[in-house]
Amino acid sequence: MLRLCVGRLGAHLGSLRWGIQSPALGSVRGLVSCIDPSLGLNDEQKAFQKVAFDFASQEMAPQMAEWDQKEIFPVESMRRAAQLGFAGVYVRSDVGGSELSRLDASIIFEALATGCTSTTAYISIHNMCTWMIDFFGNEEQRHKFCPSLCSMEKFASYCLTEPGSGSDAASLLTSAKRQGDHYILNGSKAFISGAGESDIYVVMCRTGGSGPKGISCLVIEKDTPGLSFGKKEKKVGWNSHPIRAVIFEDCVVPVANRIGDEGQGFLIAMKGLNGGRINVASCSLGAAHASIILARNHLNVRKQFGKLLANNQYLQFKLADMATRLVASRLIIRNAAVALQEERAEAVVLCSMAKLFAAKECFSICNQALQMHGGYGYLKDYAVQQYVRDSRVHQILEGSDEVMRMLISRNLLQE
Question: Which of 3, 45, 150, 285 has the smallest CB count inside 10 Å?
Fold first, then answer.
């Protein structure tokens, strides 16, 4: 069960500027309105949602701007999140996980993302990596790697994308040639979140012929000889965790670190991404929810032509549209999460629909909230611009919008 610390953290009230502003807004959780994220949840879900919102407003939101501007990887804050059970949300409890459902994970990541979308996105990737080891690994592997990941004593990165294979993941070239009881890896991965800081790398590599059936999954530890990292990339958003290339030059990895059988890696990667798509869409929800609250607060204090912006019917209608798109996004994500948890046949396409719809609509909400702030919204003193920057990449990673449309249309057109 999730290690609840209800009451440990207090809620913040918001205002308009960094330093005294809490984008997570303790008032969001208690907001009695059509966008209340606790609507439809049971008592247990409301309890850990409260813990996540409190952690977001107390621990993450006050540092969100600094983490972004100074590009800080907030190790200690994430370890405190792990103490609440947020580093192995859907991992089995015998290795330190919280053993919650995919829906529960979505609820948690949405709440955390109101405090810092970028950091929550990394936490969600870490969760995905830990689950892949827990679900597909043998008992020795589970007990070797998962406890330190669930406590965030160690951090994990997911290594699939390569410089020449992004959306076409099945064409990856990183090779792993077996020599006795080891594999020798050569190649590189690109755009890897946490690279250089993470301790564990879940790597998809080619152990066989071309195509998806030639791909296997290896767990590689940071101190492995032959493993190195490229320069830290400069990004528009997602600045609280680094992105670097991961480079393998005659990197020697024990066969004992292979997760699943040879040739099972592509299946493992895709199953991980189904959950990852729900996770990143849930991060978009958190960014959009916080942006609506910030926009609402701004409309209630900002005057133009002698009247509050809140009295302008055009802006009222815009706010109504934003709220409607937020709730629709939340419902489609939670529906997909339940389908994935129940292993329903349509789960893959529902996860694709959820990410396609929510990432696009939630970015639009954040962007409209910035527009409502006028020139202030473009200043880094105001939180709304960071939600815009941090949520934009969600339409690209974990499968681009175009790949999501391909998966959906393929499902519709099959005989």
Answer: 3
Distance CA 186, CA 189 (A): 10
Which is the catalytic residue, given 221, 233, 398, 415? 398
Q: Cβ atoms within 10 A of the Cβ of 182, count?
A: 16
**Torsional class of 281: left (φ above 0), alpha (ψ -120 to 50), beta (otherwise):** alpha
Q: Among residues 332, 378, 338, 381, which one has the least CA distance to residue 355?
A: 332
Residue 310 has pLDDT above 80, yes or no: yes
Q: What is the dihedral of CA 281, 284, 285, 287, to 10 degrees?
A: 160
pLDDT tens, residue by residue, 32-64: 589 999 999 999 999 999 999 999 999 999 999
Structure confidence at residue 166 (pLDDT) = 80
Q: Is 402 a catalytic residue?
A: no
How far apart (Å, rounded) are the C-alpha atoms in residues 295 and 371?
Answer: 9
Burial class (CB in 10 A: 0-12, 13-18, 19+), 34: exposed
* Bridge partners of residue 254, in order along the sequence: 182
Pairing relationship of beta strands 303-304 and 227-229 according to DSSP bridges: unpaired
The CA–CA distances, whole Å, from 20 to 296, 303, 322 equal 17, 21, 25
DSSP 234: P
Contact 265, 273 (CB under 8 A): no
Identify residue 340 by its one-letter amino acid code: L
Question: Residue 360 is which amino acid?
Answer: K
Distance CA 130, CA 119 (A): 17
**In this structure, how many other beta carbons lie within 10 angstroms of the beta carbon of residue 330?**
25
The average pLDDT across 380-396 equals 97
Q: What is the DSSP letter of 101?
A: -
Q: How many whole angstroms separate alpha carbon 156 and alpha carbon 145?
A: 10
